[in-house]
Amino acid sequence: MSEAAATKSDHLGQVRDSVESVYVAIVLAFVLRAFMIEAFVIPTGSMANALYGDHYELTCPSCGWQYAYGRDSHNTPGMARCPNCHFRYGDAPHRGKPVEPKGGDRVLVLKYLYDFSPLQPWDVVVFKNPQNNRENYIKRLIGLPGEGIQIVQGDIFVSKDKGKTWRIRRKPNSAQQDMWQIVHDADYPPTPALTAVSSADPPRWISTQADVKAGVSRWNLKEYGGRVFSYTGGDEVETIRFEPGYAAYRPFNGYNDSENRQLGYDPETDICTDWKLSCVWRVKSDAPAVMDMTFSSYGDRYRAEFDSRGTVRLLHQRRDAPEDAWEEWGRVDVEPFTPAQGRRVALTNVDYRAAVWVGDARVLESTDEQYAAPSDEGGAAAERIYRKAMDRATLRQRLLKCESDIQKGMLELDRQVVRSSRRKQFLDALEQEKARRESLRQAETWFETPEIRVSARGGPSALWHVKVQRDVYYTQSRLPDPRNYSPKDPNRDPDSPVYDYFRRLAKNIEEGKDFTSGLKAHPGGAFVSWGAMGHPMFLKDYPGKSDLDEFFCLGDNSSQSHDGRSWEAAAPSIRLYDDDGKPIYQLGTVPRYNLLGRAMLVYWPAGFRLPILDWPIVPNVGRIRLIR
After folding, report:
1. Of 166, 600, 84, 136, which is closest to residue 375 (Cα–Cα)?
2. What is the domain count for the chain?
3. Domain range spanning residue 17?
4. pTM greater than the 0.85 cutoff
5. Is 57 part of a structural domain of the chain?
6. pLDDT in tens, 36-48
């Protein structure tokens, strides 16, 4: 063979090797995609703030807080409200370029390997939407096959014995860190001039024990523009209180349209009291100093006490106890606090557990005996939790009646209807009624505005980086009445196969059959959602046919998440009935055969869009992160 022919043969071999390498790489990519790892785009904001769909990234003109605001057909940035200071984005004049939308997060999903590493509660999973299998949904896994699930005052309760007993389902700390939502960060105080011309009602800290005559307080809340709270020192305890402002404890999310964020929201009972208060505490001298953090939750109070000499305590006070009566739940010695540097401390109250943190360590936490989530035989515990929340409504009714009685009494006195012989007795009774009114007002306040307080005594100290956060609060949606389905409504055609389950329920209602196992009426006229309190979701498991096993999934952005609570349809591919016509699928659940895998990594976070092409192709690499 000539040298030229040999060289040509070598070149052809190199080309063949390159083509084979590319082919092998493509095959391996498809194999990985089919059996191990696949990439998905987040379609909506149902998992905000952990994961984003298409959105705007905004900086609040008033406080400077950066937050994401969901983008859909009717949302504009001007409708957004800052989750930190409640300032409406459209209330301030904006200069410069319009806000450009960002794409949804792209995530990597671990497929099928969950057969070797079973799915756990609170995992983030991707699955085919049981209502429309052309869509992929991403939610948090709440319930497993064989379990009963119900939502009670924003928390998840689980039963493993068909509803005989219920237990709180607590989150692991890894998931909890991604589920905290901002209430207020003192490092971002609002601008007074902008707040004054807007509809905002910003959160703020105020001193509750200032000297009325002198008009002074030992707390200085204006250092560094209000970012640092300094205590000048003293022998008497002095307190500052957090005033949350507009709807801070309600289950709303800054990712949503501020005018359309009340899915399943009940203003009488949906008040979140699962919080985290954190700060960096720095003592300013060698004099002993003490700082307390206090929460109230439906009347009960929880306190973390930090002594600069190194003692940390966790305390509890019942709502019917005297103001100064505290029960110690635990104490621990830590390294003393010194003027050299501050140390991060926190108090959390979440999922019926109070905990005290120093640095990244949880140094104290309540036990189940001290702080028990109600649980008993027969499942009546959930009802008692709800009734405890409804005490607020009862208090309000009693208070209104008391106010009415006092007004009638005052009117009778003004008209001199009361005889002079009975006047003193009548006045005494009226004073007693006024005292009762004040007591009722105080009791109602504990429910209407749950307290967050900080107290100090002893040597001077300061609080830096004060932050208040709240837990995800699961609201209870409403389902439509299947009897209202009409052929005139193209979106809810009763003859469509996707509404087959609801159609059968409607037929049962018309024939007077018992349908309460499928739907439960709500006093407002609709039906309560799947998994609601008193209407638990019992997930089926099928030994020997595990692909039919049922799971229950919810979104972190609870007030706007279209998840298992409100599904009313099933895609044609869903196996509704067995060969004998018996139901094998429940609306609101995800069958195992629809699961695609566990979300593991945000590899392409919320891409930036090019100026000309409206494509989010430039990743925000600063937000690449593991999904917890």
Report:
1. 166
2. 4
3. 3-35
4. no
5. no
6. 577 888 888 899 9
